[in-house]
Amino acid sequence: MAEFTGERAIPGRIEPDLWNEHVARYLFAARPAAGKRVLDAGCGAGYGAAILAEHARWVSGVDIAREAVEYAQAHYERPNLAFVQGSVTALPFPEASFDLVVCFEVIEHLIDGQAMLAELRRVLAPEGICLISTPNRLYYSEARGASGPNPYHFREFDWREFREELGRYFPVVSLYVENHAAALAIVPLEADAGVDGAVEGGPPDPDEAHFLLAACRFKEGPRPAGLLWTPRTANLLRERERHIAALREEVAQKDAWLEAAFQEKQKLLEMYHSQTAELERSNLWARSLDEELAAARARIAALQQELAEQQESARRVVAGYEAKIAELERELEERAVWVRRLEEQLTAELTAARAELEQRSSELAECVRLLDRAEAAVVERTEWAQRLDAQVRELERLLSAVRASRWHRLGRRLGLGPEVG
Fold it and tell me: Is residue 216 helix, strand or coil?
């Protein structure tokens, strides 16, 4: 059998008062079940279907849990009782199969409770009764308190919501309440003496009910009588004494918890004082770091100013070199033009001399003299050109030195000063 969680009643594994809550509903249904075809939808372990089978002509129990059906088949064998595995939202029976349908403590467990109600209506005979129960949300939300909502319930109802939901599927809905009630029982020892019962006061308050139970029909008919049942295991005084003992134990546990919390508080106070002193030391250390950081920032600013001045000086030096180089380049270009013109002139003179030599062989001596003079001029201009090349090489050396200087490289990294080609 599956683990007991309080949501499925298992004989011998459930607290007596909780067990009585489940049994009372089936005893209430036993009277209208007499001689009828009965369906127990969501039968669980099968004990309720077995109670109904003592009075009914036939009882079918349906549950979606395989282990619950196997438990019921093994423990409740009756000639007029059968258990099958199936879902209450898709019952394996034809329409109008049952005169009485009971479905206790199931609807709150379903995401789609309306599908179940539609199925219960489908299998109920026209003259039949459908008995449905559920916990009262108003009572149990207060009773559960800080423990929060029941994790096994998808939807809980108060009595108005319960009647409205059932009224969508059944034209006639009669509400009942199920409560634990304080009672005085006078029971004879002789078996032949009966017991009369009476309930004091008017109708109960459904807002304070423990459980809600409804008798649903397709048309008006006799309503099942209420039930006043005193089980052997019911002893209100004993349960109160147990509750008081549990409260005393809880108070003792809370006292121990409070003492432990006080000790923990003292430890936390000591830790707080220790951490406060440590924080003060950390603040002093942080202030000294701030002073060091301010000095470092001032030094960085001074270095940045010095670097800017050095970059400006380097820029001026580079600008001077660039201007000198530009002047030399212009002079070199002018001299190169003069040399080309001289070469062209010499070439023309030589050409004219050769022509004249061919024509006037008699004037060869004069031509030779002129040629010597021209060659002397070429030598002179060549020497001048060589001196000019030497000056250019010297200027290129100076330009290379500027490019290699650390001030020029620093200026280029910082994006300052001219770029020397």
Answer: strand
pLDDT tens digit string along 243-263?
Answer: 566 667 766 777 787 788 778
| pTM score, whole prediction | 0.56
Distances in Å between the Cα of 322 and the Cα atoms of 5, 133, 316 are 96, 105, 10
Q: What is the pLDDT of residue 244?
A: 65
CB atoms near residue 417 (< 10 Å):
20
Phi-psi region of 363 (alpha: psi -120 to 50; beta: other; left: phi over 0): alpha
182/235 Cα distance (integer angstroms): 9
Task: Assign residue 95 the CATH number of its domain.
Answer: 3.40.50.150
Query: What's the maximum distance between 2 C-alpha atoms anywhere in the chain?
Result: 185
In sequence order, which ranges of 171-235 are alpha helices (DSSP H)?
none
Query: What domain range is 128 assigned to?
Result: 16-233
Of residues 28, 52, 32, the one with CA closest to residue 41:
52
Nearest CA to 48 out of 227, 57, 39 is that of 39
φ and ψ at residue 378, rounded to 5 degrees: -60, -45
| Domain-ending residue, one of 233, 254, 288 | 233
Specify if 327 maps to a domain. Answer: yes
Total number of domains in the chain: 2
pLDDT tens figures, 265-320: 888 888 888 888 888 888 888 888 888 888 888 888 888 888 888 888 878 888 88
